[in-house]
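Case study 2.
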Amino acid sequence: MNAPLRKAGVVILVLFGLLFANLNWVQGYKADEYRNNEHNRRVTVAEYERARGVIEADGQPLASSKVTDDQLKYLRVYPKKEIYAPVIGYKPVDNAATGIEKSENEFLAGTSDKLIADRIGDMFTGDNTGGGNIVLTLKTRAQETAWKELTDNQKGVKKGAAIAIDPRTGAIQAMVTMPSYDPNPLASHDPKTFTATFKELNGDKDNPMLNRAIADTKPPGSAMKVIISAAALQAGKTQESQIQAGDSYTPPGSGATIKNAESETCPSTQVTLKEALTTSCNTGFARLGVELGAERVKKTAQAFGFEQTDLTIGNLEGSGLAVTASRTGAMANPDGSTDQAALAQSSIGQRDVRMTVLQGALIAATVANDGKQMKPYLVQQELSSERRPLYTASPKVLRTPVNSDVAKDLREMMVSVVKNGTGRKAKISGFEVGGKTGTAQNGEGRPPHGWFIGFAYNEKGEAVSASCVMLENVPGGSASAEAARISGLIMRAAAGRGGD
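Prediction:
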């Protein structure tokens, strides 16, 4: 054989070797990646051969699959549309799912290891058993009351959020955000419908796809005073301890003068801690925060959940919806020393303090549950397609920010806020209600945000609900009063007492 042929033969052998190696690489190492790629149409068709499981609450389907006559056998439908969208999310054909549809995707799709018995059975019967079903903790009456009251609020506010929690377990009873969106077009089998809808929603300046209850933070205003009260009680003060107040306070340094919202609020030089919370005394809490110090304030906030970056709410044994961390801000000068003015402002929930609506509900729930904060969750059960329970939530303590004595004092102080102070609108007949209002400035010339965090005990002395409502940019004054009113109605509905 002459030299040119030998060289050609060597080249051919090398090319065959490379081709063989690449084939093995694809089959041995890349097969799963290619098989599960969202753009693999054959995988998509196969996925839609099996009915995706139902997501439900109180026996009502919130997401289900119906048979179609197109190539993809089943269409995902969301009968309640905007009301549950922030929780449920949506499952598009060739894109990533969101919400519970995402966090419980494998179980809903029937590919979870928990459903292997069903898949083995299918091998013998030739059936395509449906995916598993998810039972949520949501109370439909509370959820729909929250949606109705938020979207038809008495102040004409267009943005806001509400959450209600069972303080004893951490089960989410309601989670609503406005504006919201209809997830049905996003589950359409027509790519043009999905693309047009997603583009429209994503470009909306009001951001209807943002879950404002857990993925957005705002200055909490006077709701922060519950944290400062807890820090003071832990430092040895009592409900009747006198704290400095007055009609105005200028913090040490270059801080702006802090005044009370109303001229008749704690104008005297001293007031009890309980009276300060009841009347929402800005000067008293600003002075108290400076007295306690930045480290104690920040550590108390962290004990309640501020700064946590890895919290999710979904399945207690798995993943869930990511929660944005609430923050206190640094409260520090460039040289690392405490910025007293920033500390004073932070102690009344302003400056750099930012809080999620979920965090507000957790603060109230902790006080109602003797100082124990339960891990919040949304998935109560996972059921097989035949409704055989494969998972049932077992509540877990997340942290214990305060002891039962401090929690008892905070509870009594917050009950006074609703009975005698700024939170009267949250009163519910037949329940003992406690809470704290918050009015948060958020920019020159812009209306403030209105907050309310609270809890409700029934006639048996059981803590049946804790809630937080936040309304953005509330015009015309009394920003927090409307939040308190809505919060009371949500907790009443969560306790099974209506709301209609």
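The chain has 16 helices and 19 strands.
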